[in-house]
UniProtKB/TrEMBL annotation:
Protein's UniProt name: DUF983 domain-containing protein
Pfam name, any one: DUF983
Segments crossing the lipid bilayer: 53-80, 86-106
Lineage of producing organism: Bacteria, Pseudomonadati, Bacteroidota, Flavobacteriia, Flavobacteriales
Record's keyword terms, sorted: Membrane, Transmembrane, Transmembrane helix
Species whose genome carries this gene: Flavobacterium helocola
InterPro entries on file: DUF983
Amino acid sequence: MLKTIINAFGNKCPNCNKGNIFEKGLLHFSFSFPKMHENCSNCGTKFEKEPGFFFGAMFVSYGLGVAEALITYFICMPFFEETFDLRIIPIIGVVILSLTLVNIKLSRIIWIYMFKDYSV
């Protein structure tokens, strides 16, 4: 299980754990949409199994965003006097916006790993 998590965060193919899923790493920032390989360069595993395969990755991305918002809230909460101070909302917004590209990549990687035994 730990090896699977390390390989997922390392942008590795779920089948052979050697080829990369995205051209750049998980934490590479650019102003364009992340480019993803169609097949693994090592074993040839096809990452997008069918058209619309990554539609479900949106829900994973939503879950990641909610988790990030809650973690940010609990980290910021001791610095404010009230239980829910409205000044926390912009901080949460900045955190979520700054992690958008990581969420896109990570949600697709998680989605691929969820269906790694799925064959076409």
